[in-house]
Every structure is written in C-alpha cells, then in structure tokens.
Amino acid sequence: TQELSGEVEVTVTQAEPLRVTATPNPSAAGRGFVLNMTVQRAAPIRIVLYDVLGRALQTWEEEPDASGALHVRVAGLSAGAYWARVTAGDHALTQRVVVVR
Asked: What is the C-alpha separation between 99 and 31, in angstroms, rounded?
C-alpha cells in the first residue's frame, strides 16, 4: 500500500563560496595583517592588495590547504586603509583592511 504525506516546505541554503577575514598581525610590529580565507572547493586563489588610490601594491597566487583555508601574512605596510581583492575560480570578494600602529 501507499500513503502520500502532506506538502513539506524545504529551504536549501548554500554556504558562502568564498569568505575572507583580516586580522591584525602583532608579529609585524603592528604594521601588517593576516588574511584568512576559506573556499568551498579547491581553486587557485589570487590576492591583489590595493591602496586607497587603487594602485596595486602586492599580488599573490596561492593554493588553499585540504580544508580550503589559506592564511596570507602581509607586513611592512604603513598605517592606513587598504583593499584586498580575492579571486577564487569564478568568485571574487573585496575586503577592506585597516593597518594601525
């Protein structure tokens, strides 16, 4: 025999394909930071660091570890605001980073 149930509503959410956080890096005498990234699937990650005038200062191309995490240490920057543009596959994210002394 068969019995049908009533309607059931299902909500499916997808985790962020790319997540980036910036944390201070005290080992760089207060003049750097660490970018912590997580990607859903293994993909090469390209990071470009810009100043507030839009000039590219540094570029990295890295591979995340097996968990999808990547930690990039940046030091030697003057105090101020910067932008980190992170691209992984077809996903991109821009994160504001502030360096204080």
From this structure: 6
Which tokens hold the place of 82?
A: 């910067």
Q: What's at 34, amino acid-wise?
A: V
* pTM reported for the whole predicted model: 0.66
Q: Identify the segments of the chain with pLDDT beneath 50.
A: 26-31
Rounded Cα distance, 45 and 29, in Å: 27
Q: Are residues 22 and 82 in contact, defined by beta-carbon separation less than 8 angstroms?
A: no
Gyration radius from the chain CA atoms = 19
Of 28, 31, 24, 35, the C-alpha closest to 71 is 35
Tens digits of residue pLDDT in 10-33 = 766 555 666 766 665 544 444 456
Sheet containing 91-99: which strands, arranged edge to edge?
56-62, 45-51, 80-88, 91-99
Going by C-beta distance under 8 Å and a sequence separation of 6 or more, which residues neighbour residue 23? Answer: 33, 34, 36
